[in-house]
Design goal:
heterodimer; A: 2 domains; 3-stranded antiparallel beta sheet; flat; B: TIM Barrel; 8-stranded parallel beta barrel; 8 strands; 41% helix
């Protein structure tokens, strides 16, 4: 899932303090699971902003709402008029939601209330770890199911580097060395010898370095055109 | 000859090589490099110019190398993949060769997190093994990574590093083998303090016959103070300083002299190890001790080839 973290309160306050009508708008999918931007967090943040406004003597009306998802139009279309009734939307959705809603609402600003952090898992309640970079060119079958692109601080394809220290990364004792994990895992799988092959330079253009990505499934996006193609 | 550098000649001639590290200034002074070059010129066969070591911005390695080259010395251009993508790397290599540089040492580079710009974006487009491979293809096939042809000659003596003290220990030889397979002509290792462990590593290197395929230069760091010894023992990832060395320095009346003695003892033991073709002295901020060490280690005069 997409893991987010609420922005520092002062930063949020600075964004919205000059508006009169603020909608704190949560998303009840990924960012709700990581306690950053769901309906509950929207409600709490709205209360905090109201308190702050009254402390500062600012006349700001703060509303809050949440919908299931911000990344598909059908979820926010039913409430779009209410959204447009505010002066500013403080979105607690991930960056996808902020971008997407910005396009839809037109002339009111949509500001991010959270920092979208990474694609992660929840190893235990309250702990979130980054496990995938969304690089568009998966190599997990070559690395024992452990991603060196995002879990190695240097994204090495032929690690580990010389900074491994008791299985930890040189950047910090709280960070596992991904290549150490890969070696241990491949030893267990009996595939360690595969690592003696040099992995070639990567094609990064499939990831965020190749410009914005887009996937079009023709048969769903434009079934008629697809059918015409077939007929001809 | 692959690169035709002095270092290559010394190693290919079967001499026990000595290289030393030259740290460039955090500024624009040519004379800092020149002074270090002057100081070290009779005491080593080649000088490594570090590339923004520990991610602290300094004069570029390429410029430092050119200054040394102009003095008639043999520079080793260190190149990390942290700060350049494949376009910049290949371009810098062409420029370096055009300016007379023949030795290049390929490294990953310390994480930018350690340096003086910790919020910088690390590039890591290719890794150090892929860098070795890239340079080999540039030299032997006269081709860029993309497959297009390079005009002109590409003489290069290609170096890589290896750290026998980082874990997992058993895998370190496999990684060295990968670097050799990628095309490394010489290896400079992380500093050796734990000679016993290094000896075990070299046994594994010899078992795989790697010592016959690549020139291995063992890294040596003279320790100047007790604080430095403790710092390296406790805080530098991948460096293993035995407690015994730290206590010897703690008990010493003349710490610097004790540090030199320890270094000399280590060098003596390294010379005895089969497959070690030289030493690489990294006297960080203590370059002026290098002549003393090389002389007392009886590694003079350096061969003139």
């Amino acid at each position: 899932m997409i893991v987010g973290k609420q922005k520092p309160f002062e930063e949020i306050w600075d964004m919205i303090k000059n508006f009169k009508k603020v909608l704190v708008f949560g998303c009840n999918t990924c960012v709700a699971i990581c306690h950053a931007g769901g309906g509950k967090e929207a409600e709490i943040l709205a209360s905090m902003l109201r308190i702050k406004a009254s402390q500062e003597g600012a006349e700001i009306e703060v509303m809050h709402a949440a919908i299931e998802r911000h990344c598909e139009p059908e979820f926010f279309e039913p409430v779009i008029d209410e959204v447009r009734a505010s002066d500013v939307v403080l979105s607690l959705a991930c960056g996808v939601g902020v971008n997407f809603l910005s396009e839809r609402v037109g002339d009111i600003p949509v500001y991010p209330g959270i920092n979208t952090e990474f694609y992660g898992a929840v190893p235990k309640a309250g702990v979130f770890t980054e496990l995938c970079a969304g690089c568009g060119n998966c190599i997990l079958h070559l690395t024992g199911g452990i991603c060196p692109i995002v879990r190695c601080a240097k994204s090495l394809m032929n690690g580990p580097c010389g900074g491994t220290n008791n299985g930890k990364c040189e950047i910090g004792q709280d960070v596992d060395c991904a290549w150490y994990l890969i070696l241990e895992r491949m030893k267990k799988l009996g595939t360690l010898e595969k690592l003696s092959e040099i992995k070639p330079v990567r094609d990064w253009s499939t990831g965020m370095y190749g410009g914005p990505r887009r996937i079009v499934l023709e048969h769903i996006a434009d079934p008629e055109a697809q059918a015409e193609k077939k007929d001809s | 000859m692959k690169g035709g550098s002095n270092l290559e000649k010394v190693l290919e001639g079967g001499h026990f090589a000595v290289t030393a590290e030259v740290g460039p200034p955090k500024g624009t002074s040519t004379s800092v490099i020149q002074k270090k070059g002057d100081l070290l010129k009779s005491y080593c066969d080649a000088m490594n110019v570090t590339d923004n070591q520990t991610a602290i911005v300094r004069m570029s390695s390429l410029s430092g190398c050119v200054i040394l080259k102009e003095m008639g010395l043999d520079p080793v251009m260190q190149m990390v993949v942290r700060d350049r993508n494949r376009i910049a790397i290949q371009s810098d290599i062409l420029g370096a060769i055009a300016l007379g540089i023949r030795n290049v040492l390929c490294l990953s580079g310390d994480s930018q997190k350690f340096g003086n710009h910790p919020t910088a974006k690390g590039v890591f487009d290719i890794d150090s093994i892929q860098l070795v491979q890239t340079l080999k293809a540039m030299r032997d096939e006269k081709k860029f990574l993309c497959g297009e042809a390079i005009s002109g000659e590409v003489p290069l003596f290609i170096g890589a590093v290896e750290n026998p003290f980082a874990d997992p220990f058993e895998y370190r030889v496999t990684r060295l083998a990968k670097k050799v397979k990628a095309g490394a002509d010489f290896i400079q290792t992380q500093a050796v303090f734990d000679v016993g462990k290094f000896t075990r590593w070299m046994e594994m290197v010899r078992d795989q016959g790697l010592d016959k395929q690549v020139h291995i230069l063992a890294g040596v760091i003279p320790i100047k103070s007790v604080g430095m010894a403790r710092y390296m023992r406790d805080n530098v990832s991948g460096v293993s300083v035995p407690d015994e060395i730290v206590s010897r320095l703690e008990d010493a009346k003349n710490v610097k002299e004790e540090g030199v003695k320890i270094t000399l003892e280590i060098i003596e033991q390294l010379e005895e190890i089969d497959g070690i073709h030289g030493i690489h002295i990294m006297a960080v901020a203590w370059e002026d001790i290098v002549p003393n060490i090389v002389e007392r280690a009886s590694l003079l005069p350096r061969p003139i080839l």
